[in-house]
Write a structure and sequence with these properties.
- By secondary structure, the protein is mainly beta.
- The protein is 4% helix and 53% strand.
- The strands form two sheets. The protein has a twelve-stranded mixed β-sheet, covered by helices on one side.
- A hairpin with a 2-residue loop joins strand 8 and strand 9.
- It is globular.
- The two termini are 33 Å apart.
């Protein structure tokens, strides 16, 4: 593959927060469901695939407005690209992530309940947030780093079942598969057919 733009430079750093977790390289697969207020009725929306080598995270997802999207995050450089196609043209939207020093919007209350999700031992936690209509029972594993998802700030492990509040209601994300494997370097690359652009430039383009 010619003219490949490399997200990562030869800069491998192990962070202090990684030391308490098992390193993971492979694929995480989550299902996304729209749920009602009872949390019992659910409608399948899509699947989300997360690829990581413990330094870079690639998230493949899909939305109704922008179609398939890929997010590439470098955990050490605080830098990311959003890869998407709009009006038959491919864009790599570059973003620099400032360090988040704000307090968490979530509070967590552990329960005694545990269960296996996708074969992973998971601890139940009741999550409260002003974004949620009511406290929600989520699950997480304290064996793996929450940084792969970058969701539920303050949770002490990787969420295996969690909720995201949207304009259209609650979405439930459930871990379906955790597959450790060696990923090829091309997993975290994108080609010259993508136009590198800032977020503000992209907004300007689509507004026209």
């Amino acid at each position: 593959m010619k003219h490949i733009l490399v997200i990562s430079i030869c800069f491998l750093t192990h962070f202090a927060f990684n030391q308490q977790y098992k390193p993971f390289e492979g694929i995480l697969t989550y299902s996304v469901e729209q749920v009602d207020s009872t949390l019992k009725k659910a409608q399948f929306v899509s699947m989300v695939h997360i690829y990581t080598n413990d330094t870079i995270v690639r998230t493949d997802s899909e939305s109704a407005s922008l179609g398939k999207q890929t997010l590439l995050r470098h955990l050490g450089l605080q830098k990311q690209y959003v890869l998407l196609e709009f009006n038959s043209k491919k864009y790599a939207i570059q973003q620099f992530i400032s360090k988040d020093t704000s307090a968490s919007k979530y509070t967590f209350e552990l329960t005694k309940k545990k269960k296996k999700i996708a074969g992973i031992k998971s601890q139940q936690v009741v999550v409260k947030s002003k974004n949620y209509p009511f406290p929600l029972k989520c699950y997480y594993t304290n064996e793996y780093n929450p940084i792969y998802l970058d969701i539920l700030k303050g949770i002490s492990g990787l969420p295996t079942l969690y909720y995201v509040a949207t304009e259209n209601g609650l979405l439930r994300y459930t871990l379906r598969k955790m597959e450790p494997l060696k990923l090829p370097a091309t997993t975290f690359l994108f080609g010259k057919d993508y136009e590198r652009i800032s977020f503000s430039e992209f907004i300007e383009k689509i507004s026209k």
